[in-house]
């Protein structure tokens, strides 16, 4: 039998399959990328056992738990663990603290004929390991920040690089007020866990090399960058990716209209998906109305409605009009204002090919 483990780093670097035996409500708050939730107890069962523990103590709570998870219910849950464990013989199981719940699961698996290791310390210890790793990364890791006007295809360039981490990809959001994706975002804890794991992998696969991150505000949709990482990025050297307004308009049209409408339709069906896509555009524009100002918002809103009408008729091209207005009159001035604050941080400016060459020289 493989031994129980406290080697949290290896678990994350190796993408070890994990069986999370916590209740679904705990899993929903935060888990790890390679974990599947196969709980020992449902939310209601866990709540009842917890109340019993507070009122009558551990022995009574354990007796209640065994009385609820017994017979056919127990057999179904053991079968689920067996199936997952046999599919992933290199995996581990865990509960919140690596205590009673995971020990019970391990014992029941043993009685069913399969020995399967658990993670000592459980979810809590793994989460603390990741938070400690992030603190170490933020204080020691070399970081380069890729900046540029909205629509300059920073994410596309970033994903070509072997030494990058895609913050927007991890947050499942395109950035900006229009960046919402049809299938939603991870919880804050899930976002942090995935982000830290990605940075740990970079650190171990590219030791001593700078990591390239895209310039982001504090929030990517509803996911907040960890404070320490945000501070480290605010001090890091900047590479400015340059692109003209026509190219940025076209890229934004492709990304925020054609791809995004297709995503919504794939998610919710052609008709409903298109209506949700249109609703999303309107809501996104409404969110920036105060910064646009009343008069400018009215103009762009009318341009958007014109584009929606022609899009319904089968021609999406009119969206380029309001996109161009928004880039020129809202996003560009905001970016230029922010960019003037720390010009000393800029180490390189150029178009995509020049940025690629610059970064290649740093890796050589």
Automatic annotation (TrEMBL):
InterPro entries named in the record: AAA_SelU (IPR058840), Rhodanese-like_dom (IPR001763), Rhodanese-like_dom_sf (IPR036873), SelU (IPR017582)
Domain Rhodanese, residue spans: 12-135
PROSITE patterns referenced in this protein's UniProt entry, alphabetically: RHODANESE_3 (PS50206)
Single GO biological process annotation from the record: tRNA wobble uridine modification
Keywords: Selenium
A Pfam family hit: Rhodanese
Record flagged with keyword tRNA-binding: no
SMART domains: RHOD
Gene Ontology MF term list: tRNA 2-selenouridine synthase activity
NCBIfam families assigned: PRK11784.1-2, PRK11784.1-3, tRNA_sel_U_synt
Name the record gives this protein: Rhodanese domain-containing protein
Lineage: unclassified sequences, metagenomes, ecological metagenomes
